[in-house]
Amino acid sequence: MMTGSGAGAIDFDWLLDNLRVEDVPSSSGDDPQDSGGKPIQVFAFEEKALQAAENFILARFHLYSQVYLHRTTRGIEQMLTAFLLAFSEEAKKGANADLAVPEDHPLRAYYMKATPDLQSYFALDDAVVWSALEISAAKGNGPIREFAERLCSRKLLKAVSIDMVNPQPTDVARRKFIDQNMKGEIGKSIFEDRAPLSIYKDPSKETVKPHKRVYVRRDGNKVVDITSLSKPVAALFADQEILRYYFINENDRKKVINITGESHAGT
User: Fold this and answer.
1) Edge-to-edge strands, sheet with 241-247
2) pLDDT exceeds cutoff 50 at 34
3) Distance of alpha carbon 163 from the chain centroid
């Protein structure tokens, strides 16, 4: 995956060798009023592939935490989002918009319309967005130019991470400091990034559709949810959340970094 992460290694061949098609009630984990319990077909693994199936689910969890939700990736997404929001607000002004890209540029044309049509949407692709970024970085003004320059030159926003799973006094103090002193800058010069990290839902406590579950076939052709056999997978039930704050102003970030749980316990 060219990420440098060792996460994601699974025994793909063994999983395929032990993959079966089984019937389960369609109301299994679904709304009982929305189904008559008629059987539907799902994939299930033979019990001897249980550990390989565990590794598959755990690898997915680790890929989310280490790759998909990596602070660099999410920081770039935050900047791109901020650029597109600022660009779209300006484009709504029509011919009077202070934009470096010409009026017939597909991205500007898309945002100019009060109700964009499918034809305008289909005209958008990576090349269109990158061209808007490059033109805005060279000739734009204000925040639009700043975000475009940062993206084109990889001047990434630096983040402060707040541990939401096992918070330390420092995490609590930093979040409180931001809420009390920097709330007005959220969405302007400070960007809040919150993302759930929930890979497998508890089918005994909430609705989980059959096709979103992992089944294991035991002796006697009994098909069960993997969580009834796997403690590692069951341990993923707890909802987790990633919380980060990205700062345009490095001095603001340093203020937060300098906050400690001991010295600001009463902040």
Assistant:
1) 158-163, 241-247, 190-196
2) no
3) 16
- Residue 22 DSSP SS3: strand
Q: Do the strands 215-217 and 39-46 form a parallel or antiparallel pair, or are they unpaired?
A: parallel
CA distance 126 to 134: 12
**pLDDT per residue as tens digits for the range 213-244:** 899 999 888 898 898 899 888 888 777 889 99
The larger pLDDT score, comparing residue 24 to residue 74, is at 74
pTM: 0.74
Q: Are 216 and 158 in contact (CB under 8 A)?
A: no
Q: Categorize the per-residue pLDDT at 27 as very low, low, confident or very high, splitting at 50, 70 and 90.
A: low
Nearest to 257 by CA among 116, 126, 152, 162: 162
Structure tokens at 135: 């033109």
Decide if 18 contacts 45 (C-beta within 8 A).
yes
What pLDDT is stored for residue 162 in this prediction? 94
* Residue 56, C-beta contacts closer than 8 angstroms, at least 6 positions apart: 10, 15, 214
Residue 4's pLDDT band (cuts 50, 70, 90): low
Query: Rounded to an integer, what distance in angstroms lies between the CA atom of residue 17 and that of residue 189?
Result: 52
The residue with tokens 């010069």 is 189
What is the side-by-side order of every strand in the sheet holding 215-217? 19-25, 39-46, 215-217, 223-225
Tell which residue, 142, 105, 110, has the closest CA to residue 127: 105
Q: What count of other Cβ atoms lies within 10 Å of the Cβ of residue 45?
A: 24
Pairing type for strands 19-25 and 39-46 reads antiparallel
Helix axes 142-153 and 126-139, enclosed angle (nearest 10): 120
